Amino acid sequence: MRLGKRVTELLGIDYPIVQGGMAWVAEAELAAAVSNGGGLGIVAAASMPPELLDKELKKVRALTDRPFGVNIMLMSPTASDAIEVAAANRVPVATTGAGSPGKVLERLKPLGTKVVPVVPTTALARRVERQGADAVIVEGCEAGGHIGELTTMVATPLVVDAVDIPVIAAGGIADGRGMAAAFALGAEGVQIGTRFVCSSECRVHENYKLAILNAKDRSSAVTGRPTGHPVRCIRNKLTSQFDHMEISGASVEDIEALGAGKLRAAVVDGDVDFGSVMAGQIAAMVSRIQPASEIIEEICREAEEVLSRLGSLK
Ligand SMILES: Cc1cc2nc3c(=O)[nH]c(=O)nc-3n(C[C@H](O)[C@H](O)[C@H](O)COP(=O)(O)O)c2cc1C
Q1: Cα 117 to Cα 74: distance, rounded to the nearest angstrom
Q2: Distance 171 CA to ligand 1 centre (A)
Q3: Pairing with 50, which of 196, 217, 240, 310 sits 20 to 30 Å away (CA)?
Q4: Does the keyword Oxidoreductase apply (predicted)?
């Protein structure tokens, strides 16, 4: 692909599409399918025990000879273990979420791992560039999962102007129009989460995929704002419980307790009523389950069509 050359060359991939690291969702099968499709597949370390992460990374290696990555959630109690497992497996790329990635850069960069932190603000983007990050992923609050304050539309050009390293846009991108828009804002790649949940290779419970396929434009809700760690998911009985607690002034501890284990309940048990069905606003546009490689090709083809159509406008 002609688009996003700095990103494809940096990561050794064919298309400038990175699959979002997604706790409980982004396992070896999905990561390998995305990498085999020419994008960058990512295994989410989240709070996985180190032995399990090691197994997942070895499984990706067995399923693909293409580059892949690991996503390390810096606020997780297992983050230090995840860094060591990534080092032992000589993982080609590491993305990081929720915090300052100093330790990851220090430990993994000398081993040749490309480190690409997720940043919600220009200040963090500038800091990680100074620390040696190879690129940044700027994630807007349209995204599924833990979110910041700024939208992709606003955060992307701000971060593009703030740093010289390549910027990958995330949040609210699920088709070629979204990818073309991200490039128009100065991004050189995109990270996609929600649409890949609905890939054939993603092993979440069928109910989870159906909840995304059935989502409409107002199906998205944000839970846990008072805790300082807001999460975007699909509106359901759990999000109503959060609303009631927040309106009645419940304590941060009680609100946090309500969220505990709820992503697992949705992903593994298929409890889409009382589980946390993390997904972005763009869920409303996801209408089919397809192989990851088809998703990647379709999005890139559409993006090139959109951009060449705009390019030919007089
Ligand atoms: C179910 C789910 C779990 C997620 N977990 C993580 C995570 O563990 N670490 C992380 O950095 N981002 C996480 N994210 C964010 C994604 O990596 C990605 O940036 C986001 O989904 C992009 O926005 P989109 O959903 O609109 O495509 C998660 C997203 C979802 C939907």
Answers
A1: 10
A2: 8
A3: 196
A4: yes
**Segments in the chain below pLDDT 70:** 1, 312-314
Q: What is the pLDDT of residue 100?
A: 82
Q: Which domains, ranges and CATH numbers included, belong to the chain?
A: 5-203+288-311 (3.20.20.70), 216-278 (no CATH)
Q: How many CB atoms lie within 10 A of CB 269?
A: 14
Query: Which run of H or of E encompasses 119?
Result: strand 114-119
Check if 170 has its Cβ closer than 6 Å to any atom of ligand 1: yes
Give residue 313's pLDDT: 58
| C-beta of 25 in contact with ligand 1 (< 6 A) | yes
Length of the chain: 314
Query: Quick check: 160 and 187 in contact, CB under 8 A?
Result: yes
Nearest-Å Rg of the Cα atoms of the chain is: 18
22 Cβ closer than 6 Å to some ligand 1 atom: yes
End-to-end Cα separation, the chain, in angstroms: 25
Q: Is 192 in the pocket of ligand 1 (CB under 6 A)?
A: yes
| Amino acid 215: pLDDT | 98
Say yes or no: CB of residue 279 within 6 Å of ligand 1: yes
